[in-house]
């Protein structure tokens, strides 16, 4: 019974898949691999809509290479193994020419072996922990040196912070980022005992003890600052407890790497005014490009929608891909990849994003202070910083370099002058 | 004429500041004229003011503060509060204020200067570091300001960035202070500054001793820097005249590696050879496929590489690296000591005595704070579990959708706040409404599903799980996956602070009170009302109860509805202190069942004991391992699993007939 | 029929369903092979072969769940934890060996032959660099050895089940208490693995498991069908083993324990021993299923052993029909494939005019409610349809229940 049923189902699904492959027309297919259900849906659905808007806009301009673009949207449902399965489906069954997708690091790691095996092309739009370089992925979000390090510099130089509390949710991005920050701070002369590290589970809600611990750090007369890589819902409890304990931004400033306009909408921000966030984009950025983008987005998705940093990354990534395809005259992955290096596209916050041979972008770093209305005041904006795949602040990574244009290697050891590996470590 | 003595100190202060400023101004070409007006200073440093950094802006602020221009203080204050603007057209500075459509401008002296479109004026937004500098500079103007609020601001600013220069003006302003609270604050601040900056060591010691075992964070913040030490290696004995904290012995106080690293860092010994360096040296000395006669193919072990390196050393091809014996000799030849950075031994010993006394007290207070946290967590667990104590504890119905009832209560609170914007009123409406909503949901569930499954407990578990999955997804479909705000009324903001160590937020106190109210309510209901009597009768023997004229169906329905309703109220409380998401319930469901099971089924005191045990345990483990909260939760559950193995019926086990099976 | 003939008849004759099952499984395997990209008409895509292979593994773990719940009456909410543990144990070797190949190749370019320390250090940096560590935790001690890790696939989950079961059954924790306790165990394990300090790469888990060490040149088209065969073989063997177990005296005893534990104890059987054996055996079967599942999925992380996964397992078995082995297989295959169909965005939305039912959003609601419906109205699940077909109705016992569990298949001896 099981067999028959399974076969019938299998046959039906197989046919549906094969049918999709046969129906391939003269369009360029763009795969969109973002969760539309499950825990990540809230963040990733926005990115899917962004992609649809960009593709629609490009088609209105006459498409690409004389062909129309066609979006192939799949739903990996916030389920990490499903990301690999859907990526394989996109590449082998739908035969997409490029994919835009993923949010969490673990979903990216799940997809990596598949796209390296099948030589696909993925644009990954979210700030991440670095320590990775794949031939088949362009990282359009921030590497640690484009978000975490400048924010820490701001703490050290502008706020004069001498003692750090690194609070994070227990997963790979905070772990790696905090590791990098710890060595960076030690290299800046902050003694190890002045760095307090704490990890909490996803969705943690009982923050009283941790906030008390942070306040107690001030006992030796040094200025304390909190660097928060706390993710998602847990921020709400954290900021509520911070406000309840009467910790003002002037006494203990908090800079967050995962808190944007979206997250603040779950909170009453009047008690949080002055706390900080570091991103490469804020909706409040005051440039004509940004104003035009926000207007287009609201017209496409609805007037109440906000814009955020990964959306900008997708805009830049998509525009670059379009340019590269035009330059290469084909959508062939290797040709497009070669054409990508050195391309330049304007940022929404001003300045130019340039694609580097290590598959990262140059990005300006913005630091914003939370306002009472849940938006950010941009108080600092750097010149574009080139993204670094392998951090310079961990001994194992400092000797590594990624250069897919000249060296054709994502993990090149500059000390031994050898390529450690061509495929990435996943 | 002799000046009234009252003003003398102020004059002295001015003079000191002025001379300081002059020194600074001479160093800064753009500010060469000491008596420039505020406008001039702003104009000359326009670029810097537009994008200020803490490192560079200090002289400008100093110049403004000491310009003597009467508007300087206003300008500084406006600048710090994002009230200073720059007209793009001509680069003129204005005091700005957001108007209906654009900015309302006033010139620096405060006279009206019309309005401007929003895009024509740049609003200057100094960062927090620059604002701190401005506040420090403003201290001199505001310490004796007629407005007490501004005086308080000045004190906060001094407390945040204490400087030696503040000591004199602070002492001077003490005499004129009329507000008793501010006066006490000023006196405390004066002593804190004295113990750090006063040139007279006797005065410093007196100031330290004057505090006793005070718990203030500011006092510890002032004392600890006095006791900062650094580790120093000496070739011979520790010289006279250094303020020695203690001698340290390699091997006991610090590891040999650390000791040698100290020597290397001080340039008193050669560095040790790292594996990478050895490897590089070998690579550089490969001749004819061999290193010092050892074939390269054999260098696949560390021992062989060491042999090859030693051979190279002997041949003089590579520099000699420190061997273990040399390291040991170097360590033995040196003395190591921790030395105070503060040169005055009288001060350091007084600070040490004071701090030791404080540390003991702080330890006790931290224990008290931890206990408060534990009680608070226990009351949250208790509140989440009390509904279960009724449905599971009394009726023995496993309701896995209990967590979703908590969630429904929290969302009810959120929805009420959408319509009722007064937070106090909305909470007062939300509490009974949440009870009503979840009571109805509970009754519906009991009638439609659970009633049919009383004989099949395992299937109740699974069926209610199905409901739980469905309810959670429905909540996601309606409200989205993002957390929704549920804001506590203003009077629950903040915390009850006993001292700088022990404090607890009002919202947690409210939850504790709510939990106690429900405990009393439960006891009253079960022991003092007819309903409670009937519930107990039906639980113990339904058919006997039925023959006594009790309607078991009705009682079961009411009891289940009651348990669910309490879960709804718990949801409002939990939503207030944490977050409202569709997964709120599943965060608490396992812990709630644990609470009931650990405490002992069927006894409210058991549930209380279970909640207390779990709360205390979790905080205890967190205290032992402060850097990993996840570990605390893991070990807590492990402990509970083991606990149940040895006391399967929980802390307070029912005996006799009430125990049922 | 007399008791004599009952004993004499062969195992297969007594259980014709086993033959049917093996036959259908064989035809199915053959069919998929013929239609696959690697060895046939390329009618079924490789990703769908992987889905089918994974489904077979889920069927195997559902079999284990059926034995412990449907036959022994212990509702364990921890078997997906054993399943995932099995995956972790094999995944450790896969990651280690694959990384070792890369590291050795990289170090070989370095001029000097690599020392064992350098190789081990290199592997550790590669595997743990991503979670900010560079040293092997002690639990990776055996990771270099395929056979040791294969043994651990069985030993670790088996050992955990043995220890947990011994403690729980010894203190006579039964019924819903045991369910909650197993759920707590799963939660504790998941939380533990979520920690980066646990040494299994925390939230990231082990990834790239589909690339087998030493087989870098073999395409995934081939590998997917190999794993499909292995999964089908494991399912077939597991089915025969369990069918043989439950058809003999052992089966009678565990069913008796399900129906009335006290009486079995008074009859002199070691109830705890039987329970412990069943608990451990099913944990081991779950672990083997997991070890086959995760190389096909490609990644394993702690989310896989969230308590909800074990509940879904119970849901599959309940929908398929408890107390009959084929019921578990049908339930697992049916619900998991249906679930991936609904959540895959392929199910057509239903426009209601004022609102459109989007199955991505509403599938879980449907599943939850249908589960309630099955519990209330069709406790025998899909397997109950076979009873109708065979005309085997529940005995008329004048209103009294056969056992505490309505959903379990009624025994033959009770029929007449």
UniProtKB/TrEMBL annotation, chain A:
Keyword flag Signal: yes
InterPro entries: ABC_urea-bd_UrtA, Peripla_BP_I
N-terminal signal peptide: 1-23
Stored Gene3D superfamilies: 3.40.50.2300
Record keyword Signal present: yes
Matching Pfam families: Peripla_BP_5 (PF13433)
Keyword terms: Signal
Name of the protein in its database record: Urea ABC transporter substrate-binding protein
Source species taxonomy: Bacteria, Pseudomonadati, Pseudomonadota, Alphaproteobacteria, Rhodobacterales
Gene: urtA
Automatic annotation (TrEMBL), chain C:
A Pfam match: BPD_transp_2
Keyword set includes Transmembrane: yes
InterPro entries assigned to the protein according to its UniProt record, in alphabetical order: ABC_transp_permease (IPR001851), ABC_transptr_urea_perm_UrtC (IPR017778), LivM-like (IPR043428)
Keywords (A to Z) from UniProt: Cell membrane, Membrane, Transmembrane, Transmembrane helix
Membrane-spanning intervals of the chain: 20-44, 56-85, 146-169, 176-194, 225-246, 266-293, 299-318, 325-342, 362-389
Chief location bin: membrane
Official protein name in the record: Urea ABC transporter permease subunit UrtC
Domain of life of the organism encoding this protein: Bacteria
Record organism: Paragemmobacter ruber
Signal peptide (from-to): none
Membrane disposition: Multi-pass membrane protein
Subcellular compartments: Cell membrane
């Amino acid at each position: 019974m099981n067999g028959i049923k399974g076969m019938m189902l299998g046959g039906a699904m197989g046919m549906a898949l094969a049918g999709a492959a046969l129906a391939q027309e003269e369009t360029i297919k763009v795969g969109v691999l973002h969760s539309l259900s499950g825990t990540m849906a809230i963040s990733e659905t926005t990115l899917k809509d962004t992609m649809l808007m960009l593709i629609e806009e490009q088609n209105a301009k006459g498409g690409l290479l004389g062909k129309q673009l066609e979006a192939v949207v799949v739903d990996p449902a916030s389920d990490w193994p499903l990301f690999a399965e859907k990526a394989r489906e996109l590449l082998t069954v739908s035969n997409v020419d490029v994919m835009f997708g993923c949010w969490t690091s673990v979903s990216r790691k799940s997809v990596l072996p598949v796209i390296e095996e099948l030589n696909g092309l993925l644009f990954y739009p979210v700030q991440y922990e670095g320590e990775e370089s794949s031939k088949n992925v362009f990282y359009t979000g921030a590497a640690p040196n484009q978000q975490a390090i400048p924010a820490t510099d701001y703490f050290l130089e502008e706020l004069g912070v001498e003692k750090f509390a690194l609070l994070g949710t227990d997963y790979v991005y905070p772990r790696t980022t905090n590791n990098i920050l710890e060595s960076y701070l030690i290299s800046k002369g902050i003694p190890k005992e002045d760095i307090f590290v704490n990890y909490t589970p996803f969705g943690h809600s009982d923050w009283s003890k941790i906030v008390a611990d942070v306040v107690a750090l001030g006992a030796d007369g040094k200025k304390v600052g909190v660097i928060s890589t706390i993710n998602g819902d847990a921020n709400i409890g954290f900021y509520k407890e911070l406000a309840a304990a009467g910790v003002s931004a002037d006494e203990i400033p908090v800079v967050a790497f995962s808190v944007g306009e979206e997250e603040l909408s779950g909170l009453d921000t009047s008690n949080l005014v002055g706390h900080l966030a570091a991103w490469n984009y804020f909706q409040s950025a005051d440039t004509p490009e940004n104003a035009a983008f926000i207007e287009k987005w609201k017209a496409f998705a609805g007037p109440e929608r906000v814009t955020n940093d990964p959306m900008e990354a997708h805009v830049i990534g998509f525009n670059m891909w379009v340019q590269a395809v035009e330059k290469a005259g084909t959508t062939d992955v290797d040709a497009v990849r070669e054409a990508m290096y050195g391309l330049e596209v304007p940022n929404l916050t001003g300045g130019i994003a340039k694609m580097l041979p290590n598959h990262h972008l140059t990005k300006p770093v913005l630091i914003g202070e939370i306002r009472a209305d849940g938006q950010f005041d941009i108080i600092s904006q750097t010149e574009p910083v080139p993204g670094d795949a392998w951090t310079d602040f961990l001994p194992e990574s400092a000797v590594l370099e990624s250069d897919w244009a000249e060296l054709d290697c994502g993990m090149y050891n500059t000390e031994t002058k050898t390529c450690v590996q061509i495929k990435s470590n996943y | 004429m002799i000046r009234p003595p009252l003003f003398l100190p102020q004059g002295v202060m001015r003079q000191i500041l002025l001379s300081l400023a002059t020194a600074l101004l001479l160093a800064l070409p753009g500010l060469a004229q000491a008596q420039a007006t505020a406008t001039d200073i702003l104009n000359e440093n326009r670029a810097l003011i537009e994008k200020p950094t803490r490192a560079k802006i200090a002289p400008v602020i100093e110049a403004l503060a000491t310009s003597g221009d009467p508007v300087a203080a206003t300008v500084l204050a406006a600048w710090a509060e994002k009230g200073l603007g720059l007209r793009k057209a001509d680069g003129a500075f204005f005091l700005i204020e957001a108007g209906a459509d654009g900015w309302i401008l006033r010139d620096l002296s405060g006279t009206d200067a019309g309005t401007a479109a929003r895009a024509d004026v740049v609003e200057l937004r100094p960062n927090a570091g620059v604002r701190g500098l401005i506040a420090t500079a403003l201290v001199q103007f505001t310490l004796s300001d007629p407005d007490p609020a501004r005086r308080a601001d000045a004190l906060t600013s001094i407390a945040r960035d204490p400087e030696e220069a503040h000591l004199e003006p602070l002492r001077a302003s003490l005499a004129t202070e009329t507000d008793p609270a501010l006066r006490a604050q000023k006196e405390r601040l004066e002593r804190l500054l004295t113990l750090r900056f006063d040139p007279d060591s006797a005065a410093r010691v007196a100031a330290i001793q004057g505090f006793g075992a005070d718990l203030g964070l500011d006092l510890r913040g002032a004392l600890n820097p006095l006791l900062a030490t650094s580790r120093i290696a000496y070739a011979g004995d520790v010289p006279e005249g250094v303020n020695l904290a203690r001698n340290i012995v390699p091997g006991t106080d610090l590891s040999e590696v650390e000791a040698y690293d100290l020597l290397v860092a001080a340039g008193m010994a050669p560095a040790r050879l790292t594996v990478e360096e050895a490897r590089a040296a070998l690579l550089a000395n490969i001749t004819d496929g061999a290193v010092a006669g050892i074939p390269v193919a054999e260098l696949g072990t560390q021992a062989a590489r060491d042999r090859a390196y030693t051979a190279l050393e002997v041949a003089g091809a590579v520099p000699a690296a420190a061997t273990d014996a040399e390291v040991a000799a170097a360590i033995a030849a040196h003395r190591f000591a921790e030395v105070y950075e503060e040169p005055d031994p009288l001060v350091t010993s007084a600070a040490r005595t004071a701090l030791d006394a404080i540390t003991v007290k702080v330890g006790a207070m931290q224990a008290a704070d931890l206990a408060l946290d534990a009680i608070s967590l226990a009351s949250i667990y208790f509140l989440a579990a009390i509904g279960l104590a009724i449905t599971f504890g009394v009726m023995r119905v496993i309701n896995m959708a209990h967590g979703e009832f908590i969630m429904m209560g929290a969302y009810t609170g959120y929805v009420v706040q959408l319509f009722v914007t007064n937070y106090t009123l909305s909470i007062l409406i939300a509490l009974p409404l949440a009870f009503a909503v979840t009571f109805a949901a509970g009754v519906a569930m009991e009638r439609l599903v659970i009633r049919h499954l009383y004989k099949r407990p395992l299937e109740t578990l699974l069926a209610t799980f199905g409901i739980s999955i469905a309810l959670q997804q429905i909540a996601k479909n309606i409200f989205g996956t993002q957390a929704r705000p549920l804001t506590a009324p203003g009077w629950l903001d903040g915390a009850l602070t006993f001292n700088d160590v022990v404090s607890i937020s009002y919202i947690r106190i409210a939850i504790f009170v709510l939990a106690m109210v429900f405990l009393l309510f439960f006891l009253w209901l079960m022991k003092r009302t007819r309903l409670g009597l009937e519930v107990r009768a039906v639980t113990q023997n339904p058919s006997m109860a039925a023959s006594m004229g009790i309607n078991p169906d009705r009682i079961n329905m009411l009891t289940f509805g009651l348990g669910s309703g309490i879960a709804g109220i718990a949801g409002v409380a939990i939503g207030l202190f944490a977050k409202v998401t569709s997964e709120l319930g599943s965060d608490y469901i396992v812990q709630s069942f644990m609470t009931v099971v650990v405490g002992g089924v069927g006894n409210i005191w058991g549930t209380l004991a279970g909640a207390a045990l779990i709360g205390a345990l979790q905080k205890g483990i967190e205290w032992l391992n402060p850097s990993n909260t996840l570990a605390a939760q893991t070990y807590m559950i492990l402990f509970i699993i083991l606990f149940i193995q040895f006391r399967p019926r929980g802390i307070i086990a029912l005996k006799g007939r009430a125990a049922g099976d | 029929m007399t008791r004599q003939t009952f004993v004499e008849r062969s195992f297969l004759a007594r259980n014709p369903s086993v033959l049917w099952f093996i036959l259908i499984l064989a035809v199915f395997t053959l069919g998929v092979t013929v239609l696959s990209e690697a060895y046939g008409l390329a009618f079924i895509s490789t990703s769908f072969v992987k889905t089918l292979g994974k489904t077979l593994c889920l069927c195997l773990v559902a079999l284990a769940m059926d034995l412990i719940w449907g036959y022994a009456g212990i509702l364990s909410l921890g078997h997906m934890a054993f399943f995932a543990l099995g995956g972790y144990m094999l995944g450790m070797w896969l990651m280690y060996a694959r990384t070792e190949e890369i590291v050795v190749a990289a170090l070989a370019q370095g001029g000097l032959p690599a020392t064992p320390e350098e190789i081990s250090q290199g592997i550790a940096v590669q595997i743990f660099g991503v979670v900010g560590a560079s040293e092997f935790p002690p639990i990776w001690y055996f990771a270099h050895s395929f056979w040791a890790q294969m043994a651990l696939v069985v030993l670790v989950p088996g050992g955990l089940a043995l220890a947990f079961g011994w403690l729980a059954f010894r203190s006579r924790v039964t019924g819903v208490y045991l369910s909650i306790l197993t759920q707590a165990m799963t939660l504790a394990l998941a939380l533990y693995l979520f920690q980066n300090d646990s040494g299994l790469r925390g939230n990231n888990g082990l990834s790239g498991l589909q690339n087998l060490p030493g087989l870098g040149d073999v395409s995934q088209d081939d590998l997917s069908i190999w794993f499909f065969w292995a999964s089908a073989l494991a399912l077939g063997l597991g089915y025969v083993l369990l069918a043989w177990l439950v058809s003999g005296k052992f089966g009678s005893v565990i069913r008796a324990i399900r129906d009335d534990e006290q009486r079995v104890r008074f009859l002199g059987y070691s109830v705890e021993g039987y329970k412990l054996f069943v608990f451990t055996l099913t944990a081991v079967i779950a672990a083997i299923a997991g070890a086959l599942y995760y190389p096909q999925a490609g990644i394993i992380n702690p989310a896989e052993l969230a308590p909800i996964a074990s509940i879904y397992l119970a849901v599959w078995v309940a929908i398929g029909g408890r107390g009959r082995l084929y019921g578990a297989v049908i339930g697992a295959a049916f619900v998991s494939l249906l679930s991936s169909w609904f959540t895959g965005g392929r199910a057509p939305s239903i426009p209601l005019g004022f609102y459109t039912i989007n199955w991505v959003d509403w599938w879980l609601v449907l599943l939850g409610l249908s589960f309630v419906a099955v519990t209330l109205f069709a406790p025998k699940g899909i397997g109950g349809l076979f009873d109708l077909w065979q005309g085997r109705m529940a005995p008329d016992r004048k209103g009294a229940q056969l056992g505490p569990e309505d959903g379990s298949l009624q025994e033959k001896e009770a029929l007449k």
